[in-house]
Specification:
Blueprint lengths: L1 H25 L8 H9 L3 E5 H10 L3 H10 L1 E8 L4 E9 L5 E9 L4 E6 L14 E6 L7 E3 L3 H9 L5 H11 L1 E3 L13 E6 L5 E9 L2 E8 L8
Parallel strand pairs: 1-5, 7-11
Antiparallel strand pairs: 1-6, 2-3, 3-4, 4-5, 6-8, 8-9, 9-10, 10-11
Length: 233
Amino acid sequence: MENFFRRLKYYGIGFGIGLVFVVFFFGNRGCAWYPSNRVKNTIFNKILVLSETELANIKKIGLSKKELIICINEGDVDFKKSKKNNRFKVYHFDCETPTGKKFQCNVTLNEDSFVSEVQIGNESGFKVKNTKKGLGNIIYFPKEKDFVFMDTTDLILCQQEAIKLVNENKLFDQIRKTGKLNFEKSNLEIQPKPEHWIQFRDKKNRLIEANAIWYKEKIQINRFILPFKIDCE
């Protein structure tokens, strides 16, 4: 019995040290079994966007885009004000700026969509809807390198060659640098797969539009709209 309690004590010490390392290295989202951290992990596996209106709102609060991401990551999810039992989920966050100013926001979570939209305000998530007008400023991308892949049709390959972006990671870099979500053309509620339209600039600063869906945790681009004609069309 004495050996059992000794082993139990050592196990408890090891478990406690392990918890300290998890919190230290993985931060606020280290304990993935917490409901709020599962929500955050899902959100941060997607692209986060802000409408022009919301971009102005965070400036009024005195936040940069990067600081907003940190505030959401460190914020508290208010599940009572969250719409969580639907294909279109909205999670309500209580946040605090680096200067100690408190604010609230809602983050949408559309099933089968790679986009989550941040909307500043204290209204409950039950009143929030997808933005339908204008462009969405992309403020966050997941860190995975191979986040974009292409449909393998002859047309897509020809279009990639025309804009000199055959490599998928280089294409993703251009989207990361210059991309915006077109709210008006996108339909995040359509079934079976939400439809996304992304605008970005190629290396010659030409405006390209890409139609895409969320497939196996990646952005699948199905076709481009180019500002010029090519022979393969």
